[in-house]
């Protein structure tokens, strides 16, 4: 059976086991501790393209799965895994509750969720269950969009476990002046006491990861220099690596060339 995904599927790829996540040892260890011992309130912060959302999707699927296999990977074949894989894959929409899973999970894309949808979530009876998990992707967007008040009381008082992701929790300087500071409301600070940061992979690990993905997806490399150029051009961001591999998958013979890498439309992910 062919394992050759189409380019769009490569761009939107999510890992299905922990060994497919490159780097981020501390974050993976935290997720595995939660899978074994139960979830906790936590926010994961780090630059765009450092697998925050991808690790959340994998960690939550593993929590939902009742038949986890080696290294705490979700089995991928049970009803829970099949029902969660499609709708969780993009972290879009408001929330997902999987029946017959080990726990109920609500997943919120904070960049697109509406105030009305947040009000519905804040009234949902499941968030009064301590085994429920609420995952807020790009949580700082709720403050920027001025809609955090719709979920403020739930965030402060719900006995569910709340997990968030954010690009940065600190203000940055740009052209000698500070960018606008997103002030976290007290309810957020009380809820997300545990904070952990993502990290960029080292060059050697990322090169090995690229070779693994190319073998799995049957993508050919014009020469070994292509891998070195991918690492350099992507600035170690997995998201941009996937975009480059998708270009290779769209080429004749599924071959990625030096020319492809040089002409890649790189946009600063931060």
Quick structural summary:
Helices cover 41% and strands 12% of the residues.
Question: Keywords, please?
Answer:
about 40% helix, five-stranded parallel sheet, about 270 residues, single chain, alpha/beta
Q: What features would you describe in this structure?
A:
This protein has twelve helices and nine strands. α2 (25-37) packs parallel to α3. The chain has helices at 7-11, 25-37, 52-64, 79-88, 115-123, 140-144, 152-157, 186-191, 203-217, 224-234, 238-250, 258-262, and strands at residues 42-45, 105-109, 133-137, 161-166, 173-174, 177-178, 194-197, 220-221, 255-256. The chain is of the alpha/beta class. The protein has a five-stranded parallel beta sheet, covered by helices on one side. A two-stranded antiparallel ribbon has the order 5-6. A two-stranded parallel ribbon has the order 8-9.
């Amino acid at each position: 059976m062919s394992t050759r995904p189409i380019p769009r599927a490569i761009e939107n790829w999510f890992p299905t086991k922990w060994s497919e996540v490159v780097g981020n040892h501390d974050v993976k260890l935290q997720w595995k501790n939660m899978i074994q011992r139960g979830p906790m309130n936590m926010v994961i912060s780090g630059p765009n393209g450092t697998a925050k959302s991808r690790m959340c999707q994998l960690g939550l699927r593993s929590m939902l799965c009742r038949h986890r296999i080696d290294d705490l990977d979700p089995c991928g074949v049970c009803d829970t895994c099949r029902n969660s894989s499609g709708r969780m894959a993009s972290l879009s929409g408001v929330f997902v509750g999987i029946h017959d899973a080990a726990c109920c999970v609500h997943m919120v894309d904070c960049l697109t969720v509406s105030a009305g949808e947040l009000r519905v979530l804040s009234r949902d009876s499941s968030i009064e269950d301590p085994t429920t998990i609420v995952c807020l992707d790009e949580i700082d967007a709720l403050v920027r969009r001025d809609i955090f008040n719709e979920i403020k009381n739930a965030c402060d008082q719900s006995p569910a476990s709340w997990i968030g992701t954010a690009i940065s929790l600190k203000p940055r300087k740009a052209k000698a002046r500070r960018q606008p500071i997103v002030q976290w409301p007290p309810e957020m600070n009380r809820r997300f006491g545990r904070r952990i940061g993502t990290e960029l992979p080292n060059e050697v690990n990322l090169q090995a990861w690229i070779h693994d993905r190319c073998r799995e997806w049957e993508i050919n490399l014009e020469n070994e220099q292509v891998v070195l150029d991918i690492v350099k051009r992507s600035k170690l961001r997995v998201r941009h690596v996937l975009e480059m591999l998708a270009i290779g998958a769209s080429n004749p013979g599924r071959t990625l060339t030096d020319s492809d890498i040089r002409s890649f439309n790189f946009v600063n992910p931060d």
